[in-house]
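Weekly structure sync, notes
Attendees: PL, DS, HV (note-taker this week)

Item 1: Thrombospondin type 3 repeat-containing protein
DS walked through the input record. Source organism listed as Flagellimonas zhangzhouensis. Sequence as pasted into the shared doc:
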Amino acid sequence: MKHKMNLLNKLGMCLLFLLLCNKIYSQSYVGFLEDNYSGVHSVISNPANIADSRLKTDINLVGISALYGNDYLGFNLGDAFKNFGDTFDTANTYPSDDNFLALNIDVMGPSVMLSMSEKHSLAVFTRGRGFFNLNEVNGNVLKKEGGFDEDEDFFLEEDNVYGSFSGWAELGVSYARVLYNQEEHFIKGGASLKLLQNIGNVYAYGEDISFDYNSNTREVTTTGYLHHGNTGEVNEEGNFGDAFGSRNGTGIGADLGVVYEWRPEYDNFKKLKGNGTSITNRGVNKYKVKLGLSVTDIGRITDIVGRDRLYDLNTTQSIDNFDGDVLEEALLDNFEMISEKDSKNYALPTALHFNADYSINSKFYVNLNTDFSLTAKNAVNTGGILNQYRLTPRFESTWLAFYSPISIIQEVGFMWGAGLRLGPLYMGSGSVLSSLVGKETKGLDLYAGLKVPIYQNNLKDKDNDGIVNKEDACPDIPGPVENQGCPWPDTDKDGVLDKDDACPDISGPKENKGCPWPDTDNDGILDKDDHCPSEAGLPKFNGCPDTDGDGLADKDDRCPQIPGSLENKGCPDTDGDGLVDLDDLCPNVPGPINNNGCPEVTIEVQKQLNDYAKTILFDTGKATIKTESVSTMVDIIQILNEYPNAKFTVEGHTDSVGSSSSNQRLSEARANSVRDFLINEGVAGNRLIAIGYGEEKPIASNTTKIGRTQNRRVEINLIK
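Item 1 (cont.): predicted structure, written out as tokens:
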């Protein structure tokens, strides 16, 4: 009778832990984290998400996400629901020299997020995480119920392998704030700081490992070298003791993230209070496109008190002598330990995440998410994730959301899932649909949880007047904020609102601010049409008067009191010289325009003036004009009046009798005497200048009496 040998439980268990470690196949809470109403959960992928959140407060009670994936076993999920007991017996297996298996559990414990203000948000969360991974494992060791017939030879070659199992608890604090908010551009950033308590960690890595069993000799020959390390103590039952003890190690981790939102319709999300101050509608999403970038799980668990042992596997021994039911016990009992040192610290599965969210409208979105591992594949005792790409269409509202993530995951392949958020309940899977629709599945994930969400108020504006309903005195009728959201009244029904109507109780046109037009001068023409509203006038002159009746309105008439012709702008031209009287210095005597309408003094006139002036007689040795010369003075005045704009010099001359100084004084006195006489008779003083020349300018000889008589004279000369 053939017997199953106990190699799988002893030697095979060692093989199961010879893994490439550092890989989980998927992100937790697939689809739910992209939801704008995921609240405190959103810090898992990007701590910046909680700034400007759609929730005032979010309290997570409990949530769990479990992920499984492999390329060895394929089963139909529908068959599993029908008869779960036979699922794995009837499942297809795909053993190879390079099989993959991964399991991840992520428990979100009591956690809370607070939106402290429009710019600042804070979250405190608790989280338990566990990674179990197998990679590049020879799947032949798992066939046939996990064992081999001891009467058959077998050979298994693993070559170089790396592996780990890790579990830890997190207590984290996240802070996020708005960094930039100008018109259509919005940026927010955030960071999480996490205190880590290691629960347990086992890792192994080796070189050139193989197993060769000879059924005739019942001996197994093993080759290679194996490092095995553990965190904390492992008891005889293979369990981790002192789960939260100081021996297991502690650490600090961090997440960093930034989010950019493009808000082309940013003005639509600004509302007003009743007092006119602005308020942002925080209850709705404002972006058309949202882009997020984050790095998560930066850090490591240190201060581990554990052992890292190197074993020499190069030996041949009978399976009858193979002892040990626990991995570490089996290694110690059956192989030579070459060295022993402190176990290595565990490095967190640092990853880079990029997220792009497109808003089709206020309810429907399409999300593209990518996750990339930032840790080396063959790093010892180091966590990591499998790279993946995910497209998630979703319907999203305050109390209800549906999403259907479609993923391509490294080493797992295509997955299609569905999720639901209904008030406090959230549940879903990133693979449930592909598992049900496909013939078989090699991966499955599920998550569910309960929370207490308290949403931001969605500011309603029923009448679209920009004022929120609760601040709007007339929420059903649009109106300005100056009137508390109510339309302005129009008491007199003249089409001019009372706020703009200077006469709210009397109808009037808009052009006069709602008041009737006045007729100030009572001429029957309204002021709006009256060009002279303060003076009564005639309709044909647009309400302006024509005082002199010359057919030209006073406002256009240069001589409104004297009739005149239209050509002369209502002024007369008495002397007909082409210069109106108003501008004519000689309105009664024709004269050229260039001489201001006055006649010009001719040579003949000049001669006549001097002929008269020379006959002016004075008392001997005095400046007194004799009476018989008055008639001559009158003639001179008449001539001067004919040329009112002409200016003249009145010049006095003497003979040479007497001293020159006395003659000079006498000539000046006589010139002034003539000038004064002319002024007294009405000739303008500014037209006359008196000059005395004494005996300087004789016109005849002073040696004769006749000559001296001619030299005693007065001349009146035109100033040119």
